[in-house]
Amino acid sequence: MCMTAAIEVLVVDVERGGIRAEDALGFVSDPSCGGITLFVGRVRDHSQGRQVNAVLYDMFEPLTLKVLEVAAHEAQVQWGPPASSSPTRVDTLGSAT
């Protein structure tokens, strides 16, 4: 368990536009912690035999924020990280190239 920080920081946010992996990694970086999990999704160029040009991510924001907050809190209770960042994106993801 990473227990170096006296105050735990929990950030749950909805981004309109891109999420920079470097920013997320920098926020949760702690030399006393051994692991960081980061999911980076891409738009693939096909689905079910058809060409894909873009993917639209949409959500009901109040419910999304509540679910992300609960998940981040449960992770902190179980593993005790000093910081957690859970941004999610609402936007059209561009070309699959």
Automatic annotation (TrEMBL):
It holds the Pfam family MoaE. InterPro entries: MoaE_sf (IPR036563), Mopterin_biosynth_MoaE (IPR003448). Residues 83-97 have a biased composition (Polar residues). One of its GO terms (biological process) is Mo-molybdopterin cofactor biosynthetic process. Residues 78-97 are annotated as: Disordered. This is Molybdopterin converting factor, subunit 2. It comes from mine drainage metagenome. The lineage of its organism: unclassified sequences, metagenomes, ecological metagenomes.
